[in-house]
Design goal:
- This protein is an alpha/beta fold and 422 residues long.
- It has two domains: 220 residues, Nucleotidyltransferase, domain 5; 176 residues, ATPase, nucleotide binding domain (Nucleotidyltransferase, domain 5), CATH 3.30.420.
- The protein has 13 helices and 13 strands.
- The strands form two sheets. Strands 1, 2, 3, 4, 5, 6, 12 and 13 form an eight-stranded mixed beta sheet that branches.
- It starts with 22 loop residues before the first strand and ends with a strand.
- It catalyses: 1,6-anhydro-N-acetyl-beta-muramate + ATP + H2O = N-acetyl-D-muramate 6-phosphate + ADP + H(+).
Length: 422
């Protein structure tokens, strides 16, 4: 994007061209697969005690290959420099700004843009193991998302909410997963109907939200696509850099000793709240496990089948322990038949469905979450969840003004009790 791009034709949305009480927000998200940016323009309208969300449009863009390569190269455990971090912060911000400008040009001005940015490091102190062999709860100390929001504000003229995880961590939480807020509202009707529902996101990392009358519990269960994608890219097994349609994994067989070794990682024994990322589950981590088990020569099909079974096993164990009756899956992994058939096999008493059954596309959910976090911040509502481990509810995010002065509405007294996607 040109630094001198004019922004006069892009401006903060006026109240004259929207239904009463409606707010239009662009949510932008790039997840732990580090492959690109998803965006959703969402119009939120209060209705009684709840909230109607209308997805106006969905946009996405892959990272330019050179930028993605530099981003992946800079990720832990690789060393990097502050100069490269600064360049990535600017260039990722420009990539987000390009997509935001495209969304605004297609859908019209926004009240707010809510940008997650790109996570490059999630700092979690390892749990210590007690004399009984039970790990203590790990503690999150910090998190870093790149993608300077000023570029988005400059390109769109709209205010930008960013840095949405840090406050939860400062309050003693994990800052992840934040999707429990959306899942609790989306599944409220199912809870009232007597179900015990859960939501599952299969991105680079898998996370689950279990919704009950008392609230929601959400945590990261372990890797979903992170290790599988790393293997495919390392071995050049597919031009897209991932196992498309799970074809390679479907052709392989699970290697039981390797699976047992992978499942021995202490992370899986830790009790929620907990979070993780590619800081732990990366290619060098996997190489070390393969060396210990003398399975470096394992065919890629068997390796991918084993890694898929690792995800199935760790997710299923978490949901079985929670007594879940139905599950709504989203994320790139929800389109992997090996993962989905494995979950149905491992959870025979659970109805495994797609998030699309709730009106939310499998690839749209995280962008919708960002838009919802923007709506909460816009109305002065805390968005952090007790399940994260935080000491209490907190307002999340930092606001960058748009082309004009920042004018927020009066804070709402109560959060919505439910959300339906119209």
């Amino acid at each position: 994007m040109s630094p001198g791009r004019p922004t006069a034709h892009l401006h903060q949305r006026s109240t004259a061209d929207q239904p009463e009480g409606a707010v239009r927000i662009l949510g932008l998200m790039s997840g732990t697969s580090h492959d690109g940016i998803d965006g959703a323009v969402v119009e939120f309208t209060p209705q009684g005690e709840g909230l109607i969300a209308r997805v106006v449009t969905h946009v996405s863009a892959a990272y330019e290959p050179g930028l993605r390569d530099r981003l992946v190269t800079a990720l832990p455990p690789a060393p990097t420099t502050l100069a490269e971090v600064t360049r990535l912060d600017t260039q990722i911000g420009q990539a987000f700004a390009e997509l935001a400008a495209r969304a605004v040009e297609g859908a019209g001005p926004m009240d707010l843009v809510a940008s997650h940015g790109q996570t490059v490091f999630h700092w979690v102190e390892p749990a210590s193991e007690s004399s009984t062999g039970t790990p203590s709860t790990p503690a999150a100390r910090g998190t870093l998302q790149l993608g300077q929001p000023a570029w988005i504000a400059e390109a769109t003229g709209a205010p930008v909410l960013a840095d949405v995880r840090a406050r939860d961590i400062a309050a003693g939480g994990h800052g992840a997963p934040l999707v429990g807020l959306l899942d609790e509202l989306l599944l409220a009707d199912r809870v009232r109907a007597g179900a015990r529902p859960a939501a599952l996101n299969l991105g680079g990392i898998a996370n689950v939200s279990v919704v009950e009358d008392a609230g929601v519990r959400a945590w990261d269960t372990g890797p979903a696509n992170a290790l599988m994608d790393a293997v495919v890219r390392d071995r050049g097994a597919h031009p897209q850099g991932y196992d498309a349609d799970g074809a390679l994994a479907a052709a392989g067989s699970v290697h039981a000793p390797l699976l047992e070794s992978l499942l021995a990682d202490p992370y899986y024994r830790q009790a929620p709240p907990k979070s993780t990322g590619k800081e732990l589950f990366h290619l060098d981590y996997l190489r070390a496990v393969l060396a210990r088990t003398d399975t470096e020569a394992l065919p890629i099909e068997d390796l991918l089948a084993t890694l898929a079974e690792l995800t199935v096993h760790t997710v299923a164990r978490a949901l079985h322990d929670a007594g879940v009756s139905e599950l709504y899956a989203s994320g790139g992994g929800a389109r992997n038949p090996v993962l989905m058939s494995g979950l149905r096999r491992a959870l025979p008493s659970v109805q495994v469905r797609s998030s699309a059954d709730l009106g939310v596309g499998e690839q749209e959910k995280e962008a919708l979450l960002m838009a919802l976090l923007g709506w909460y911040a816009w109305h002065g509502l805390p968005a952090s969840m007790p399940a994260s481990g935080a000491r209490g509810p907190r307002l999340l995010g930092s606001l960058t003004p748009g082309a004009g002065p920042l004018r927020l509405p009066e804070p709402r007294e109560q959060p919505p009790a439910w959300l339906r996607v119209g």
